Amino acid sequence: MPLRVLILGGTTEASVLARKIAGDPRLAPVLSLAGRTTNPQPQPIATRTGGFGGIEGLTRFLRSEAIDAVVDATHPYADQMSTHAVTACQETGVPLASLVRPEWRRHADDRWQVVADSEAAARALGKEPRRVFLSLGRQDLHVFAEAPQHHYLARLIEPPGQFRLPPELRLLQARGPFDRADEERLLREERIEIMVSKNAGGTATYAKIEAARALGLPVVMIARPHKPVGVTLADVEACAAWLHGLAPRGV
Ligand code: NAP
């Protein structure tokens, strides 16, 4: 009987894992997406979309779908989903592993100011109007309405929802990976003076950090939230090996 695996996704790693284990007769995976992106990339395994309905909903799902193992491959900043996964897996006794993407490390010539959250990032921009590149996802944009003196260029995969937005905001709709030369060009052409970023880790969006370094631009770096995790795995190979070491729970 194949191992029934729930992958909590919404990241490159989750898609890479899906590709790696698709067609593996030992595994019966389902990839779960929050549903934030209207046109998610097609996946080679079964998918489900939308929240579970909190810890209770996830617990119910694990039981009703007879899930044998959960892989938390959510984004480093998706801390609520991870917290729910830890509790629901504890309650149901389902093994949980987390694919944790390593953080970007500060280089000697990086000009980072690390702040706790997006509210602190908005304050860190200062009182004087500046040209700001926001690269942090649409859920956080409304926070910058509290600092309306700045000119913002915000890069998003999807347009923002009905949130209140800063008055001087231009949107740039694009999906990574991004190229370093293009990032430098964008920052120059837009005369960006400061960038706000999450410490996403990985390679897909690192070029903006390299570009800021090359141009000597300051970066307000929002620190990662604390994420409770189960077994921590560094890459999809380790994840596949972990899954292959588990037996279906009914056996
Ligand atoms: P979050 O704050 O941790 O989660 C909020 C709620 O969204 C969860 O309680 C859950 O709803 C639902 N949810 C989140 N991930 C889900 C998943 N994979 N499958 C089903 N439901 C999910 O998450 P978030 O920061 O809003 O991120 C949402 C999604 O975007 C995640 O899949 C994440 O990997 C991806 N993402 C996030 C960021 C970021 O910067 N936060 C960046 C890139 C991608 P219920 O309580 O109803 O179950």
Report the major sheet.
6 strands, parallel
Question: Which class do the helix and strand fractions yield?
Answer: alpha/beta
H-E order? EHEEHEHEEHEEEHEHEEH
Rg from Cα = 20 Å
Instruction: Give the distinct bound molecules.
Output: NADP nicotinamide-adenine-dinucleotide phosphate
Range of strand content: 15-25%
Number of helical regions: 7
Average residue pLDDT: 95
Description:
The chain is an alpha/beta fold and 251 residues long. The chain contains 7 helices and 12 strands. It has a 6-stranded parallel beta sheet, sandwiched between helices. It has a 6-stranded parallel beta sheet with strand order 6-11-10-7-8-9. α1 (12-21) crosses α7. The longest helix has 14 residues, at 79-92. It starts with a strand and ends in a 7-residue tail after the last helix. The structure holds NADP nicotinamide-adenine-dinucleotide phosphate. NADP nicotinamide-adenine-dinucleotide phosphate binds at residues 8-11, 32-34, 36, 51-54, 57-58, 74-75, 77-81, 84, 137, 139, 198.
